[in-house]
Amino acid sequence: ITAAANAWARGAEVLPKPWQPQKPVLPVEGMRNVLITSALPYVNNVPHLGNIIGCVLSADTFARYCRLRNWNTLYVCGTDEYGTATETKAVEEGLTPQEICDKYNAIHADIYRWFHISFDYFGRTTTPHQTSIAQDIFQRLLARGFLQEDTVEQLKCEDCQRFLADRFVEGTCPFCSYEEARGDQCDKCGKLINAVELKNPQCKICRGIPVVRPTRHLFLDLPKLEERLESWLEQSWATGDWTPNARYITRSWIRDGLKPRCITRDLKWGTPVPLDGFRDKVFYVWFDAPIGYLSITANYTEQWERWWKNPQQ
User: Fold this and answer.
1) Is 197 exposed, middle or buried (0-12, 13-18, 19+ CB in 10 A)?
2) pLDDT at 130 over 80
3) What's the CATH code of the domain at 191?
4) What does the record list as coiled-coil region(s) (predicted)?
5) Do the beta carbons of residue 273 and residue 288 sit within 8 Å?
6) Taking 90 as the threshold, does the pLDDT of residue 185 lie above it?
């Protein structure tokens, strides 16, 4: 308190000069380098105050604090644009998925500018960098034996002549009987769902009743990673600052045992799968979207790996 009072009495002229980072902002040897990302907002809606408070505002406040501390700070974000929600929105508005993304990316960017959110860069996930980085990560997983093929039973709408990705299906939750459950998760009880488990399923496009048909997909072999993940979590829980909710959800997944998780979808709108036999499919957005943090940084600077592959910093 005494030090703060003395600093206040001496005035602003004795404060260290604000750090002016180079453009683009890159890590600087000997400085504290801070990379900040907001959760990528999904592109199929107009952001409202709750969206901004929920993720963007807290990161913006922290970025401003870091800059006031003269820490070398990079703050990036962007719109998450692939997946079934974009396709369904495109159907609703009579536009192509790309037109939907272009429309809502511009709306998002304008709103964040109006709020003076201090992004160093606001990008998007529908870029060549996203494709190349996501496919490279996929190839590395494939080469190291962390992927497996399997046949799954999937709902197909005979009227639309297409397999239905999880968000193209709605029905009654098999666990809590909520009547508006999605084909991937119930928003009432929170349980993950396989779309074929839904009771009274309906195609969201035509409201027809889909039928179950087999289709081949690729899975991330999460059980192979479980032992390493558990040891990492124990260390991270002991040294990190996890919220009680994050700890609870993570423990519940580990407690039940990790299962292989499908990373491909029978869609057109997404990052193409670069493997023979699966080239008519795209990556499931949960696999693809987190890579957007890397690709957005790569669109900001060619030296993006100095931020993302720099364990010494």
Assistant:
1) middle
2) yes
3) 2.170.220.10
4) none
5) no
6) no
Question: Does 230 reside within a domain?
Answer: no
72: containing domain? 21-138+285-309
The predicted pLDDT at position 161 comes to 80
Q: Is residue 129, in this structure, part of any structural domain at all?
A: yes
Q: What one-letter code names the amino acid at 228?
A: R
The model's confidence at residue 292, banded by pLDDT at 50, 70 and 90, is: very high
Q: What is the mean pLDDT of residues 14-40?
A: 91
pLDDT category of residue 313 using cuts at 50, 70 and 90 = confident
Q: Are 294 and 304 in contact (CB under 8 A)?
A: yes
Mean pLDDT comparison of 46-55, 71-80, 222-231, highest-scoring range? 71-80
Q: Is 112 helix (H, G, I), strand (E, B) or coil?
A: helix
Domain of residue 88, CATH code: 3.40.50.620
d(CA 42, CA 119): 17
| Predicted TM-score (pTM) of this structure | 0.83
d(CA 36, CA 77): 9
User: Same domain, yes or no, for 28 and 72?
Assistant: yes
Nearest-angstrom CA–CA distance, 131 and 125: 9
The percent helix, strand, coil of the chain (3-state, each to 5) is 40, 20, 40
Question: What's the structural domain count of the chain?
Answer: 2
Tokens linked to 163:
């397999």
What mean pLDDT value characterizes the chain?
92
Q: SS3 string of 25-90?
A: CCCCCCCCEEEEECCCCECCCCCCHHHHHHHHHHHHHHHHHHHHCCCEEEEEEEEECCCHHHHHHH
Name the pLDDT band for 162 (thresholds 50, 70, 90): confident
Instruction: Judge if 117 and 201 occupy the same domain.
Output: no
Question: The tokens of 207 are what?
Answer: 């409201």
